């Protein structure tokens, strides 16, 4: 990987919930010395703020109000970033099932996507970034240097999410988690605005029977071939 040391690529990772995008992107960022950007976390911020204020962020003025009232900040933390609201670190509050459901709903609203699109592009414009989400390779960075679409079997993705929630003292029934994953898949793929889909030139990786290290090794091998 020596030839990558002086190259600052923009790497896009897309895929459905529970496919392992975040874990793969974090580890890949560590290995390359890049910055990892979780775009889903940005939508979760909107959802968290909206749930807290019990409003639907359906226009830009409301989004502006949410950000100004809560004083939302994204701060670098190692290869990743944390989210602050009025100087409080709320990153750990953004992974609850309720926030997840609302994040998927609000991500289909034009005002929300327009607000975050510019911020996401600005964060990745200089390269040296691994950005993951559901429309990175198709909308945010259609000209990304490398694109990956990470997928896995629905039950496997639900099991991963179930174990993740349990580890964070937020247990749920596996059947409920499977139902949530299926609902999220439907919302993400059927929404009219920037639906979840694989970019034509993305490398597909099915992580169902792969370890995290195996997934990242496959990504590194492809990156090495195209640089």
Walk me through what this model shows.
There is one protein chain. The chain has 227 residues and is α/β, with parallel strands linked by helices. It has a single domain (10-220), classed as Rossmann fold. Helix content is 50%, strand content 17%. The chain contains 9 helices and 8 strands. The chain has helices spanning 21-32, 39-53, 60-70, 97-106, 110-124, 136-140, 154-167, 174-190, 212-226; strands spanning 10-14, 35-38, 72-77, 80-85, 88-89, 129-133, 146-151, 203-206. The strands form 2 sheets. A 5-stranded parallel sheet has the order 2-6-1-7-8, with helices on both faces. The longest helix has 17 residues, at 174-190. The radius of gyration is 17 Å and the shape is globular. The model has no long low-confidence stretch (mean pLDDT 87).
Gist?
The protein is α/β, with parallel strands linked by helices and 227 residues long. The chain is built from 9 helices and 8 strands. Helix 1 (21-32) crosses helix 9 and helix 4 packs parallel to helix 8.
Please give the CATH class: Alpha Beta
Spatial ordering of strands, largest sheet: 2-6-1-7-8
Q: Could you give the order of the helices and strands?
A: EHEHHEEEHHEHEHHEH
The CATH architecture? 3-Layer(aba) Sandwich
Characterize the largest beta sheet: strand count, sense, and whether it forms a barrel: 5 strands, parallel
Which residues form runs of ≥5 with pLDDT under 50?
Answer: none
CATH superfamily: P-loop containing nucleotide triphosphate hydrolases
**Domain count:** 1
> What average pLDDT do the residues reach?
87
Strand content: 15-25%
Shape: globular
Counting DSSP H or I runs of 4 or more residues, the number of helices is 9
Distance between the termini: 10 Å
* Rg from Cα: 17 Å
């Amino acid at each position: 990987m020596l030839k990558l040391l002086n190259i600052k690529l923009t790497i896009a990772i897309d895929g459905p919930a529970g496919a392992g995008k975040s874990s793969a992107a974090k580890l890949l960022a560590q290995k390359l010395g890049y910055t990892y950007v979780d775009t889903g976390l940005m939508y979760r911020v909107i959802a968290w703020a909206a749930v807290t204020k019990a409003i639907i962020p359906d226009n830009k003025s409301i989004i502006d109000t949410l950000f100004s009232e809560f004083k939302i900040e994204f701060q670098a933390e190692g290869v990743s970033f944390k989210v602050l609201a009025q100087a409080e670190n709320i990153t750990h509050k953004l992974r609850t099932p309720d926030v997840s459901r609302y994040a998927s709903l609000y991500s289909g609203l034009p005002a929300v996507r327009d607000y975050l699109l510019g911020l996401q592009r600005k964060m990745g414009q200089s390269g040296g970034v691994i950005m993951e989400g559901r429309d990175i390779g198709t909308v945010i960075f259609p000209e990304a240097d490398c694109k990956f679409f990470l997928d896995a079997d629905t039950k496997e993705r639900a099991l991963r999410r179930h174990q993740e929630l349990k580890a964070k003292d937020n247990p749920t029934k596996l059947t409920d988690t499977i139902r949530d994953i299926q609902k999220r898949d439907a919302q993400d793929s059927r929404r009219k605005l920037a639906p979840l889909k694989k970019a034509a030139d993305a490398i597909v990786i099915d992580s169902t029977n792969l370890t995290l290290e195996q997934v990242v090794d496959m990504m590194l091998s492809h990156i090495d071939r195209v640089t």
